[in-house]
Amino acid sequence: MPRSPMIARTVPALRRAIDSLRLRKATIALVPTMGALHDGHVSLVRAAKRRATRVIVSIFVNPTQFAPTEDFGSYPRTWKADVAKLAAENVDMIWHPAVEAVYPQGFATRIVPEGPAVVGLEDRFRPHFFGGVATVVGKLFTQCRPDIAIFGEKDFQQLRVVMQMARDLDLGVKVIGSPTVRERDGLAMSSRNVYLSAEERQVAPTLYRTMKECARRIRAGEDTEAAMAGGAEIIRAAGFTLDYFEVRNAETLGPIASTKDGPLRILVAAKLGNTRLIDNIAV
């Protein structure tokens, strides 16, 4: 029978709970989220449970990663449904702080990531984003003191930024990427998919289908530039406004000169109506 997870809302309460777990020699996995949980998040929780004896899920809509023109105010917030999902998965604790608990009055410190955070993908269109992500994730790691943290591969550049930060700052957290969970038609699960109209929802899987076809062509030895240009044309013809559609080194996210430049990843970001979708696949 599902049991209700403990809910911590203040740093002192969180610390007391974690101290208790540590006294019992627990290994702790953290799954950072912004709520509006879907089956992709559930897959992260299950991955965490396979790797640790206790699982903490954070639910915090982080204001510092939203630009003034973005959807912080309207971002989906489904607290009761989220708690029910996590209870069904027997999560041990939910860390659900108020903004004031994470960024108290006088807060004046930021983490400014480089490396995979400045490669001309998401950072080109959302220059504020990774500084906000790195700062809040750095705080979550120091607050929750996990042994491991699970992030979805859908946000692949974010995953690489967090991995680099944890390594560079000796945070003692093993950051693990978990495969993207998709709808039956291939659309990557995302909390922002609720913004899509019925018509847009039918078009949205074009991104995944096009990435798969481009990856197939590249693996078959076709010219990478031609394959990607053809894919970009298909995406635009379907009605998307394309931010980027690129093949990069999967580890550094740097541009490639040839298909021999290490493992490859295709990454895409595009707007369909008012909804911005991102996705990626391995080549």
Task: Characterise this structure.
By secondary structure, the protein is an alpha/beta fold. The protein has two domains: 6-178, HUPs (Rossmann fold), CATH 3.40.50.620; 191-282, Pantoate-beta-alanine ligase, C-terminal domain (Pantoate--beta-alanine Ligase, Chain: A,domain 2). Helices cover 38% and strands 19% of the residues. It has helices at 11-23, 39-51, 79-88, 99-102, 122-125, 129-144, 156-168, 198-203, 206-219, 224-237, and strands at 6-8, 28-33, 54-59, 93-95, 148-152, 174-178, 241-249, 264-272, 275-282. The strands form two sheets. Strands 1-4-3-2-5-6 form a six-stranded parallel β-sheet, sandwiched between helices. The chain has a three-stranded antiparallel β-sheet with strand order 7-8-9, with helices on one face. The longest helix has 16 residues, at 129-144. It is globular, with a radius of gyration of 19 Å.
Question: What's this model, at a glance?
Answer:
This protein is α/β, with parallel strands linked by helices and about 280 residues long. The chain folds into two domains: about 5-180, HUPs (Rossmann fold), CATH 3.40.50; about 190-280, 2-Layer Sandwich (Pantoate--beta-alanine Ligase, Chain: A,domain 2), CATH 3.30.1300.10.
